[in-house]
Design a protein that fits this description.
Helices cover 19% and strands 39% of the residues. The termini are far apart.
């Protein structure tokens, strides 16, 4: 991979993460000593108590100004920045620093931050290229929404709704009608998020694949399926009456209700997430640490 010279680094912390305050100040000073300008997300700047001369930007604008973003918090904070980085159209790398329990995406611990950051600055860091999903929504054939997500596109029912019904097509052919509490369309990266909780498979992030997982299906024949990453999935919701409401949500961050006749088309995005890896852990070590994956259930 060609090394990008890093001259400006964006810094974003989870909202209200006071545990990061001291680290933010120290991080800004570390970058400035190396003649790299730290640019703070607006709320993060307030959290850090940075001097008033530090430049600040909104979460939307920050990816347009920097070569690297450091995210302090959890996977949710990183997901929100991954989407914004993808929409910026620039190849911005992201370094996720975890506070609290280890995340699947924010896998660098705070005590590892400066070693990993040093490798990112000098061009020796290992970069994970993660596939993302693009979702386009249509109503009466009019394109009304476009998203890029890292983890998943999820169709769910309202709390009081009965089961929902969705027609799912892959390529040009109808695959199935899903009758369930919902449907998850997950990237390989997203396979360890909601998909895993719903009984879907773990897919290695380097696999070129998309997972379709029904949520609490009402027939035993509706099983998770892994399809090639090159396929295009179309979902058509069937809304029977006023009691039924179907929502689509993107990376668990935002969404809206869909109507009868709407079509949501999901495919692999042309954008990827460039994630800076913690060199001390492999993907399988992360699975073992996070999920106790492969451990025996009982004592010897």
């Amino acid at each position: 991979m060609t090394h990008t010279t890093i001259t400006r680094v964006g810094i974003v912390a989870k909202a209200g993460l006071t545990a990061a305050s001291d680290h933010l100040e120290r991080l800004g000073d570390w970058l400035q000593r190396r003649h790299i300008e730290p640019l703070f997300e607006t709320d993060t700047a307030a959290l850090s108590g940075r001097r008033s001369n530090a430049r600040t930007y909104s979460r939307e604008d920050l990816p347009k100004e920097v070569e690297l973003i450091i995210v302090m918090g959890g996977d949710g904070t990183l997901l929100s920045m991954a989407t914004r980085a993808a929409h910026s159209g620039r190849d911005v790398a992201i370094l996720g620093v975890n506070f609290g329990s280890l995340g699947f995406l924010t896998e660098t611990r705070i005590d590892e931050l400066y070693d990993v950051l040093e490798s990112a600055v000098n061009g020796t860091a290992e970069i994970d290229e993660r596939a993302m999903l693009a979702a386009d929504a249509y109503r009466t054939r009019e394109h009304f929404d476009a998203r890029i997500v890292l983890n998943d596109v999820v169709f769910t029912k309202a709390a009081l709704s009965r089961i929902i019904e969705l027609s799912v097509s892959v390529g040009s052919g109808l695959v199935t009608k899903v009758k369930a509490d919902g449907l998850i369309i997950a990237s390989a990266t997203g396979s360890t998020a909601y998909n895993l909780a719903a009984g879907g498979p773990i897919v290695h992030p380097r696999a070129d694949a998309i997972v379709l997982t029904p949520i609490a299906p009402h027939t035993l024949t509706n099983r998770p399926i892994v399809i090639p990453g090159s396929e295009v999935i179309e979902v058509r919701p069937h809304v029977q009456g006023t009691q039924d409401q179907i929502f689509v949500t993107y990376d668990g961050q935002s969404g809206y209700p869909v109507q009868e006749g709407d079509v949501v088309r999901v495919r692999r995005s042309e954008r990827t997430l460039r994630l800076i890896k913690a060199p001390t852990r492999s993907y399988f070590e992360l699975l073992r640490e996070k999920l106790k994956w492969g451990e025996r259930g009982g004592r010897d």
